[in-house]
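Minutes, project check-in
Item: structure for the 80-residue chain
Input as provided by the requester:
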Amino acid sequence: MSDAQRMTQALTLFRGYRSFGLTGEVRDAVDTQIGLHVDRQGNCAGTYRRLGGTTEFVIIGDRAWEKHDATALSGVLDFA
């Protein structure tokens, strides 16, 4: 079973809850870690860590905000 299939199955199981939190790691070469909290309306808040940098994010409806620490911002600028 792929990671995407596991995520789909988990989200289906959590359908009965008003909200839930999730913490995990992505199996990649840069040790990506994600922690988030989601409600039934699709609003979400969490933290994304990658390459030693941290990005905090909030998604409410169709709007999203990100806050990068210096390391994460440098990585985004290098990528761009």
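Outcome recorded: Strands lie at 19-26, 32-39, 44-50, 53-60, 63-68.
No further action items on this chain.
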